[in-house]
Amino acid sequence: MSQRWIAFAFAAPLTVALLLLAAFVPLPYAVYSPGPTFDVLAKDSNEAEIIQVDGHKTFRDDGEIRFTTVQSSPRGEKLPLLPALSKWLDGDRAVIPYDIAHPPDQTAEEEERQGAVSMVTSQDVAIANAMRELGYEVPSTIQVADVADDGVAFGELRIRDKFVEVDGKPVRRSQDIVDALQDHGPGDPVELLIERDGRQLTVELEPEESVIDGERAKRIGISLGIGYDFPFDVSIDVDPEIGGPSAGLMFALAIYDTLTPGSLTDGEIVAGTGELTDDGAVGPIGGIEQKIAAAEDAGAELFFVPEENCVDVEGLDTDLTLVKATTMQRALQSLEAWADDRGAELPSC
Fold it and tell me: Which of the residues 1, 20, 294, 330 could staple to 34 if both were Cys, CB 3.0 to 4.6 A apart?
């Protein structure tokens, strides 16, 4: 046997083994896929309006305003090479580093909780922006965004409880509460004056010391967020399994539509995405291409793209009218112009 054949006899099995390893050994990648879209103007499975209003006239007209979602491959599931390549070749999916989809410094429970906190905040910010666009004064407050089921506040504080005072002093910023907790501990409760459902309550809690990310501090097991004193009640009833802040813009447009006569979409289907801030700015999100694909499947004609995501949709093949969204107010103006004239010149990417 020649040396060439001897070398081949040794190399061939190794090559096959390496190819098998490359094909089946998990790699540090995850997949984003188009998720379901939800019409905020619709009714839920119990025939109740998703947007509930108490204290203001509502207008239930035709049309759909949909927020879009992205589905990530599950935590712990990493793709081998061949499945990763097949997903990468699928134009509606994105292969991304695993640590972006599932941050290593978060557990599955923390990831889910953060998503729930972001959803609560996005709803309240959207309500505030819609009301301000209608001319209402909506002052901001500090509120409970989440309550850990293993913390001392569990059963005592609730999501959306607003902080009025801590130890007899007015609460103006989140740090006021954080600082006050450090002066108390077991046997020495902090005194919190809160507002819940229009009533003021006093709650006393004994902070516990814990270490998170190497930082030792006194805590009561809550997350703080921005809240508001609304002139009337608006709530958004969406599936609690859905988390994250990216529906904020579409929530705000749908609330505005509900509180004003006529169809903001002229009876058509529009969709979009974008995190909304307290001052009405629209921030970037992840998975924009997957959300556009989901909107197309839902029959949408127009899609709002956060300005910073415009670079992600350059050259994208879509029949949707992609409208650049910088603020809630400008997005509203664009939608009104489009509803009046489908050929209107709109801000685009």
Answer: 294
Strands 64-72 and 269-272: parallel
Residues 286, 321 share a domain:
yes
**C-beta atoms surrounding 155 within 10 Å:** 9
Confidence band of 103 (pLDDT split at 50, 70, 90): confident
Domains: count for the chain: 2
Q: What is the per-residue pLDDT for 77?
A: 73
pTM: predicted TM-score of the whole model, two decimal places? 0.82
The CA distances from residue 115 to 104, 106, 242, 244, in Å, are: 16, 12, 8, 4
Model confidence at 212: pLDDT above 90 = no
Which region among 16-20, 32-36, 208-212, 289-293 has the lowest average model confidence (pLDDT)? Answer: 16-20
**Judgement on whether residues 316 and 236 belong to the same structural domain of the protein:** yes
Q: How far is CA 341 from CA 265, 266, 344, in A?
A: 11, 10, 5
Q: State the burial class of residue 74 (Cβ atoms within 10 Å of its Cβ: 0-12, 13-18, 19+).
A: exposed
pLDDT at 265 over 50: yes
* Same-domain check for residues 184 and 253: no
- Which residue, among 76, 92, 87, 82, has the nearest Cα to 28 in the 3D structure? 76
124 and 257 in a common domain: yes
Contact of 266 with 69, CB cutoff 8 Å: no
